[in-house]
Amino acid sequence: MTGMAVGRAVDLTKLYGYVDLHCKLEEMFDIQGELCSTLKKWQVVYADEEDDMMLVGDDPWDEFCNMAKRIYIYTYEEAKQLAPKATKLSRVNSSHESVTPQSGSDYPASFANADC
């Protein structure tokens, strides 16, 4: 997966929260169990309208759905280097997967620290 830029779309209105999003991304990129794992192999981040990059899961689900314009999957080490002590990430060129969310969700936040 590293080194590929992939433009795929995810309809956030069909998902109920961050766990669903992680499961959908795992399915799309054939990395089942790797986003929800405690091994921390991958980190999911998103870009908002101003191209600021933020960690997925830091905002309530409905706010995330309205703000996210692009979703990226970085290796955990790449994400850690981007912002070791902050949730706001600097924009960098890196090996990553990208997904374009289709937002507009009316679903309530349903984040849970559960496996997919």
Walkthrough of the structure:
By secondary structure, the chain is of the alpha+beta class. It has a single domain (7-102), classed as Phosphatidylinositol 3-kinase Catalytic Subunit, Chain A, domain 1 (Ubiquitin-like (UB roll)). It is built from three helices and six strands. The chain has helices at residues 18-28, 61-67, 76-82; strands at 7-11, 42-47, 53-55, 70-75, 88-89, 97-102. A six-stranded mixed sheet has the order 1-6-4-2-3-5.
Give a brief rundown of this model.
This protein is of the alpha+beta class and about 120 residues long.
**Elements, N to C (H/E):** EHEEHEHEE
> What count of domains describes the coordinates?
1
Return residue spans where pLDDT drops below 50 for at least 5 consecutive residues. Answer: 84-95, 103-115
- Read across the widest sheet, the strand sequence of neighbours is 1-6-4-2-3-5
Helix content: 10-25%
The major beta sheet can be summarized as: 6 strands, mixed
Name the overall outline. globular
Tell me the name of the CATH homologous superfamily: Phosphatidylinositol 3-kinase Catalytic Subunit, Chain A, domain 1
Mean pLDDT: 74
Radius of gyration from the alpha-carbon trace, in angstroms: 13 Å
**Any guess at the CATH architecture?**
Roll
Q: Give the termini separation.
A: 20 Å
Helix count from the secondary structure assignment:
3
Helices and strands, with pairings:
Layout: E1 7-11, H1 18-28, E2 42-47, E3 53-55, H2 61-67, E4 70-75, H3 76-82, E5 88-89, E6 97-102
Parallel strand pairs: 1-6
Antiparallel strand pairs: 2-3, 2-4, 3-5, 4-6
